[in-house]
């Protein structure tokens, strides 16, 4: 069962602390393979979603300023983003739908979240408008970027809660009441 509303055609994900989390202490994002793991619970929450032809479209919108600071190449950043998406969803998004900002934090560019540029790029790639797009993220800049792009926002914690509330109760669980925010 999909945790997404029926009007959603395109789901854009933030990456760090949404699809993946870094396993290197004191590092905000992975610089190479083996430096990240899937965010716990998200794979299960998305297990009922069908992606690709006949299903939902996927995009990624991620601030990757560590490219500018020389910690990894743009090619590696893209590969790692696609790896994380595939690990969590079972679907490898098309490269053109994987959008990231490689600029300095203070560059004032039009793509670094909370600017809406990355979300617009992912929507343009798929030819889907804001009314049929949902952005899933974990940070306030994600929420702001969604608002500026005119796109609905779902916090990853709410995605996990929503998925739990639609699952049959497991044995002995005292399923805490879930307040779904809409
Ligand atoms: Mg994040
Ligand atoms: Zn940028």
UniProtKB/TrEMBL annotation:
<dbReference type="Pfam" id="PF13242">
    <property type="entry name" value="Hydrolase_like"/>
</dbReference>
<keyword id="KW-0378">Hydrolase</keyword>
<protein>
    <submittedName>
        <fullName>HAD-IIIA family hydrolase</fullName>
    </submittedName>
</protein>
<dbReference type="InterPro" id="IPR036412">
    <property type="entry name" value="HAD-like_sf"/>
</dbReference>
<dbReference type="GO" id="GO:0016787">
    <property type="term" value="F:hydrolase activity"/>
</dbReference>
<dbReference type="InterPro" id="IPR004446">
    <property type="entry name" value="Heptose_bisP_phosphatase"/>
</dbReference>
<dbReference type="InterPro" id="IPR006549">
    <property type="entry name" value="HAD-SF_hydro_IIIA"/>
</dbReference>
<dbReference type="InterPro" id="IPR023214">
    <property type="entry name" value="HAD_sf"/>
</dbReference>
